């Protein structure tokens, strides 16, 4: 199904889902567009999984409507099953099958030729392992195999449910590169749930943060940081905190904290360069020793922890 680049592929309108006394998703309206890579973030119990399961057709809303590719699960299940796919935290395979046998098996479910199996193995960089037994694959290779299978039907929508959980940092980063390349090359819409803030920051065009069944805030990373967490962070280690108390008393400082255990001060400022200049002058004039100093832009991790620290109530 060919679609315009800016067309909505998923439309939530006033969607609510309840489980007895628990409202898991509460009056959510959300549009997701063709080719978009979007993250659903939030603390445990925020409603992310329920939202994803309704996209997948595993659950039906109690109120509101969901349209996917202009269709509804109740009437168009066969159509949608051929156009959605997903990658879970862990996928169980038959260990004694070879990689190519496994992909060919799933390709047969979609009536795809074996040439398509070769294409997806190349896409996920597993061609060199095509004759290897599945039981001999590493965790990262198994996830790439799951991704290859998810790509077999050339899906218009892919659900990525914590796809790199348990992988070491190097393998995780390699998986990110593959996912981002697939998103750009195939224009498949990708929906990611993850607890790795760096993962969402690296991969996603738009970020939705959920809490208690609602979408608390959404936008690009720059938009969210500008709205909720303006400024830059200055962190420095100093043994005598009282010697630097004057540094907090200027209009550039937004907030200040000091950890006694690590002897590290953390200051949120409007302008990091200006504060760094003032800090260097101050420590020189007062002969204060600073062991280390870092000036950095705020990250999604900072934003998430800040919202969590405020109990997600603001």
From TrEMBL:
Chain ranges of the ABC transporter domain: 10-237
Domain of life of the source: Bacteria
GO molecular function: ATP binding; ATP hydrolysis activity
Membrane-spanning residues: none
InterPro entries for the chain: AAA+_ATPase, ABC_transporter-like_ATP-bd, ABC_transporter-like_CS, ABC_transporter_ATP-binding, P-loop_NTPase
Keywords: ATP-binding, Cell membrane, Membrane, Nodulation, Nucleotide-binding, Translocase, Transport
GO cellular component terms, semicolon-separated: plasma membrane
Location(s) in or outside the cell: Cell membrane
PANTHER family, alphabetized: ABC TRANSPORTER ATP-BINDING PROTEIN, ABC TRANSPORTER ATP-BINDING PROTEIN NATA
Family statement drawn from the similarity comment of this UniProt entry: Belongs to the ABC transporter superfamily.
Protein name: ABC-2 type transport system ATP-binding protein
Protein's organism: Chitinivorax tropicus
């Amino acid at each position: 199904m060919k679609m315009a680049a800016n067309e909505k592929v998923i439309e939530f309108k006033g969607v609510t889902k309840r489980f007895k006394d628990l409202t898991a998703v509460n009056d959510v309206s959300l549009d997701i567009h063709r080719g978009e890579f979007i993250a659903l973030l939030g603390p445990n119990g925020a409603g992310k999984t329920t939202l994803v399961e309704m996209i997948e057709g595993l659950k039906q809303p109690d109120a509101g409507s969901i349209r996917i590719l202009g269709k509804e699960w109740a009437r168009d299940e066969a159509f949608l099953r051929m156009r959605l796919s997903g990658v879970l935290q862990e996928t169980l395979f038959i260990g004694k099958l070879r990689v190519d046998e496994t992909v060919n098996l799933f390709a047969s479910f979609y009536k795809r030729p074996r040439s398509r199996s070769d294409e997806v193995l190349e896409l996920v960089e597993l061609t060199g392992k095509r004759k290897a037994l599945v039981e001999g694959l590493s965790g990262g290779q198994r996830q790439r195999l799951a991704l290859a299978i998810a790509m077999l039907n050339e899906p218009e929508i892919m659900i990525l449910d914590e796809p790199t959980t348990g992988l070491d940092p190097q393998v995780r980063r390699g998986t990110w590169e593959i996912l981002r390349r697939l998103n750009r090359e195939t224009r498949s819409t990708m929906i990611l749930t993850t607890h790795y803030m760096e993962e969402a920051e690296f991969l996603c065009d738009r970020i939705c943060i959920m809490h208690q069944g609602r979408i608390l805030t959404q936008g690009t990373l720059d938009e969210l940081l500008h709205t909720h967490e303006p400024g830059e962070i200055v962190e420095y280690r100093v043994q005598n905190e009282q010697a630097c108390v004057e540094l907090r008393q200027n209009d550039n400082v937004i907030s200040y904290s000091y950890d006694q255990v690590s002897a590290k001060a953390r200051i949120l400022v409007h302008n990091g360069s200006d504060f760094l200049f003032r800090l260097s002058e101050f420590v020189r004039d007062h002969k204060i020793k600073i062991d280390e100093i870092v000036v950095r832009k705020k990250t999604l991790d900072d934003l998430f922890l800040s919202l969590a620290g405020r109990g997600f109530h603001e």
